[in-house]
Amino acid sequence: MKSREQEYREIFMAEALEYYDAMSRHISELEKDPADEKALNELFRLMHNLKANARAMGHSDIGEVAHRMETIFGLIRSKERAFEGSLVPVLFTGVDTLGSMIRAVGEGEKTANADPLLANLERLVNGEEPVFEEDPDLASDEDATRKLELSDLVYIQIKKLDHLLNLVGELIIDRDRILTLSQEIGNPALQSTAAHLFRIADDLQYSVMDARLVNVGSLFNKFPRVVRDVATAEQKDVELAILGQDIQIDRNILQIITDALLHLVRNAIGHGLETPEVRVKAGKTAEGHLTLSAQTERDDVLIQVIDDGRGIDVESVRKKAVERGLTTAEAARNLDADAVRAFLFEPGFSMAKEVTDISGRGVGLDVVKLAIDSLGGQLRVDSVLGQGTTFSLVLPTSIAVKGALLFEIADRSYAIPLMHTDSVVSLWPDEMHVIGGVLLARVLHENIPVVNLHDLLNSSEDGVLPTANKGSLVGRQDIIIVNYNNRKLGLIVDRFLRQQDIVIKPMSKPLDMIDLFGGVTLLGSGQVCLVLDVPALTRLFLAKRP
């Protein structure tokens, strides 16, 4: 995997070479027509951008030349100087020198000595005549050694990569079908060809997915200014730490979570972190600490927003949930901390005591959760009162191709994304108990509600979920433990099949109205397999439970 510095260097080189090509074109246009304001404005903009980028990357010599050139073009724009006489060859030499310096950076060589050029540019700024001396380091237009080079990087529209990934998805489906057919037919030559196709399609799939990956730093590095502005508005002192900028993720996923991450950061400063006075009284530093981090978690990317603020008052949330009519007082008393914190993600739920530009407008964490759900990801919240809060976004590295667990119900294949699969277990009926009309299983010191998935799917049609009765269970039960919104649910299935990567396609009309299914995929046997929507299943169970 490329380092962040290497990736930034490549981006700088690609942009710098593009700038140089554009400069060469526009300065020639300006020579033909000194009154061409469009060409002049473009030259000024290009010099300004190159100056900023070069200085940011530590190439101060390139930045200084671009800065002096920008100054001259600024004088021409303000009519203080004219693009004529001895000024013209100096500016052409400046463009050529920038090209030589940029190429030297790309080749890891020492850049040319630009002192004579800088001296002439300074003379022009001061209204003096330039001095021309032969200098082998500064090539002129007539030097038959001039290099013409193209960037090693190509900018591609995201929609083109999206289309390419969709085609790869279709290829993966057909690849699996061909592999299955070759195994059924048993022809050695066909099996060998199918195996070769499998390897090529696999390499192509990961190559296309890799082309779409970007460092999360491209988003994270925009937040220091955001934090500064929000902290100032809230009259709070906040120190931001950014970790894991090198972690890579699909560019589309990063785009989708941008607003969600912005909301979480603003929420952490507005709700989480206290004012300096309150922090000092609580024995904390006056300055609040906010961390934005990314790391890999199995095949997923974990992005966290961590603050050392006041934490979430579970009892206040419990009370507010009852006031809002989201639950009854009796039911609320029996909810654990995770279940109570889950109310924070309900539409319009807010703990803000007053409306500000930052909070209290009823646009809450539900917006964040919806964005994460649309990606098939998870949003978790952990908090300790008085110590701080951590919001965790568990995201897939790719949208189109996802890991899934295949299983059977009534001889029909289904799939559940691994993103929402906590574990799989096989339990005997006497290892489960019915409490309050709900079947519970003790898994790793945790009581988890369990439901027969066949019954749950059928209840969506007639609105009735059969009363839990472990007496109807015969033999060892295969159970998939899913996790969504800090809630775990055990789904009893007929049989586990296997784990594999699948390409999820959207449901066609009118089936797209059934929100229990997140899409379909085609298995190697040619069978259509429905992909279950775990958030929708969880909501259905909570609505149908006794």
UniProtKB/TrEMBL annotation:
Residues 1-105 form the HPt domain. PROSITE patterns: CHEW, HIS_KIN, HPT. It catalyses: ATP + protein L-histidine = ADP + protein N-phospho-L-histidine. Gene3D superfamilies: Histidine kinase CheA-like, homodimeric domain, Histidine kinase-like ATPase, C-terminal domain, HPT domain, SH3 Domains. The modification Phosphohistidine is found at H48. Residues 401-543 form the CheW-like domain. InterPro entries: Bact_Chemotaxis_CheA, CheA-like_dim, CheA-like_homodim_sf, CheW-like_dom_sf, CheW-lke_dom, HATPase_C_sf, HATPase_dom, His_kinase_dom. It comes from the Bacteria. This is Chemotaxis protein CheA.
